[in-house]
Amino acid sequence: MSAPPPGTTADARRRRTRWLDTQLAPWRTRHRRACACQVLAGWLWIPQAAAIAWALDALLFARAGLDALHAPLMLLAATLLARTLLVWAGQRLQADVIESVLARLRAGLAGAVAARGPVWLRGRRSGALVALSTGHVDATAGYYGGYLVARAELALVPVAILIAVFAADWIVGLVLLLTAPLAPIFMMLIGMGAETAGRRQLAALARAGAHFTDRLRGLDLIRVYGRGDAELAQVGEATETIRVRSMRVLRIAFLSSAVLEFFASVSVALVAVYFGFTYLGMLDLRGVTLPLSTGLFCLLLAPEFYAPMRRLAANYHDRANALAAVAEIEAAFDGLPMIASGSPLTPQVGEGWDGGEACVRAEIHPSQSSQPAAVRVSDVTLRHPEARTPVLQDISLHVQPGARLALVGPSGSGKSTLLDALAGWLTPESGRIDIAPGTRIALAGQRPWLFHGSIADNLRIGAADATDAELAEAARVAQVTRFVSQLPDGMDTVIGERGFGLSGGEARRVALARALLLRPQLLLLDEPTAFLDPATEADLLAALDAHLPGCTVIVATHSEAVMAWAGTQWHVPAPVEVAP
Ligand SMILES: Nc1ncnc2c1ncn2[C@@H]1O[C@H](COP(=O)(O)OP(=O)(O)OP(=O)(O)O)[C@@H](O)[C@H]1O
To answer: Of 386, 416, 526, 572, which is best to mutate to test ligand 1, by the most ligand atoms within 8 angstroms of its C-beta?
Structure first.
C-alpha cells in the first residue's frame, strides 16, 4: 500500500466526509425519511412526558377519580404506540440504506481497481485490496446508520425539548442550555484521537490480511524452505498488533461515552436538586409556587435532552472509524476514487491512446466489422508507474491491417511493456498510439490468470455466448484439444486458481484459446509458444495461420519459428541508459 496522502488536516477530513456523503446520494430521500422517523420519535417524548406528569399529578396529588386519568392515559398510549412505530420504521429504512450504500461502495471500489487496470494491479497486494472492500467498507456502516441519524436528532430534538422546558420553567431551561455545550467540546477532543487510532487499526488489519493471503499462496515455498515456524510467529505478531489497536479504539469509544454520561448525569442531578430544594421550601428562585406536574414534566424531559448527545457520542467514533477507512482507501488508490452510478467496470481510457475500451468490453457481435485493425505508434515513450526511467523511448512503428509483426529483443527490453500499452493498460508518457476506436483487441499474456473452474468456463470468460462449436474450434487452434482429450472430464475438467493442475505451456494455450474466442481484429501475443516442444509449436502456428485471416497480430517472441511465421520483425531498441 502506498504512503498515506496528507491526512490529518481539516481539509482532508472535509474531503473525506464529502466523499462519504456523495455515496449516499442515490438513497438520500430514504435516508432523510429514516432521520425524520427518529426525530419525530424524539419530539414525541414531549407529549409522552406531559402525559405521565399529568397522570401522576392527577392520581397522587390532585386525588381525582379514575375518570380524570382517562385522557392522560390515552395520550400516553398513543405516543408510546407512535414512537414504537416510528423507531421501527426508521431502523428498517436505515438498514436498507446501509446495505445499499455498502454494496455500491464495494462495486465502486471493484470498478476503481478495474479502471486503474492490470499494470496498476500488478504492483498491489491483493489481500490488502480485499481488506479495503470488506473491513474498510464495513467500517463506514456506522457513519451512515448511526452517526448521521444521531446528528439529525441532535440538531432538532434537544431544541424542541428546550423550548418545552423553558415554557414550563425557565430556570431548568437555563440549566439545560448552559450544560449543553460541554458535550460537543469533549466529543471533538476525543474524536480526533479516535480517528488516528481507527486508522492505525484499519492499516494493521489490511497489512495482516495482505500478509496472510500472500503466505497462503506461497505455502508450498514456505514448507520447502522450512519457514513454517517463523511465518507462524509473524502471523501471531500481526494478530497481536490488531488486538492492541482494536482495544485502543474501544478504549476511546468507551471513554467518549463515559464522559458524556457523566456530564448528562450531573446536569440531570442539578435539575433534581433544584426541584427538591424548591419543593422543600429551601429555595425560591421563581417567586411563584411550582406545580408538581411541572417539576415531573421537566425531570422526565431532562435525560431526554441529553439522550441525542449521548447517542451521538456513542456514534462519534463510528464517524472517526469511517474517516479512517476512507483515508486508507485514499492512500491505496492515490486519491479518492470516483464511484459512478453506472457500470462499476467501466475502464478509464488513457490519454494518447484510442481503442482501449475494446479490449475490456470486446464482445462477439456478428454484425460488427471484422476488418483487421491498423496500429500506429508515434514517438511513444513508456514508463512503468513509479519506475525511474522509461523502458522504451520515442519509438514509432506502423502495422498495416492484417499484417503480422514479431517484437524481437533481449529479455527485459520492453516487449511485454509495449503489448501492455497497445492493450491500453499502460498510458504512454508521451506520443500516441492510434488504433481505430471500437477495435476488438485480445491479449494472451505471459502469466495468464486462470480462474478456479472448468476449462470451458475459463474459455468463455470473454465470450459468454460462444457456441460449443466455436469453443471447440478455438481449443483446436490453440492446441488445447491435444491435452484436454487426455483429461477425464475433457473441457469440463476443473482447474484450480491460476491454472493449478495445468502445465505452464497448457495454461498459455488455454489463454490463447480464450483470446481467439473474442474473434479479435487485433491479437496481441506474448511468447505464445515459450514452453512448447517444436512439433506442438509448428502445429499451433499452422492452425493459427488458417484461423486468423483478417486479423492483425503483434507477437513478442524469442522463437525463430514464430519470427518466421510472422514474416516481419521489429527489433526493440537498446534499453535507455540509467544515469548513476
Ligand atoms: N511494473 C513495473 N515497474 C517497473 N519496472 C517494470 C515493471 N514491469 C516490468 N518492468 C521492467 O521493465 C523492463 C521491461 O520488461 P518487459 O517485461 O517489457 O520485458 P520483455 O522484453 O517482455 O522481457 P521478456 O523477454 O523476458 O519477457 C524490465 O526491465 C522490467 O524489469
So the answer is: 416
- Give the total residue count for the chain: 580
Residue 347: what pLDDT?
37
| Domain over 356-571 is classified CATH 3.40.50.300 | yes
Q: How far apart are CA 199 and CA 201, in angstroms?
A: 5
Cα-Cα end-to-end distance for the chain:
28
What stretches in the chain show pLDDT beneath 50?
Answer: 1-7, 342-368
Question: What per-residue confidence (pLDDT) applies to 502?
Answer: 81
Domain 10-332 has CATH 1.20.1560.10: yes
What ipTM score was computed for the predicted complex, to two decimals?
0.95
Ligand 1 pocket residue status of 414, Cβ below 6 Å: yes
Atom 27 in ligand 1: residue holding the nearest Cα: 411
pLDDT of residue 409: 92
Sign for the pseudo-dihedral over CA of 324, 325, 331, 337: negative
Residue range(s) in the chain whose domain bears CATH number 3.40.50.300: 356-571
User: Start-end ranges of CATH 1.20.1560.10 in the chain?
Assistant: 10-332
- Going from the Cα of 573 to the center of ligand 1, the distance in angstroms, rounded, reads 14
Would you state the cell numbers that stand for residue 30, as one nine-digit string? 430514504
pLDDT at site 518: 86
This prediction has a pTM of 0.67
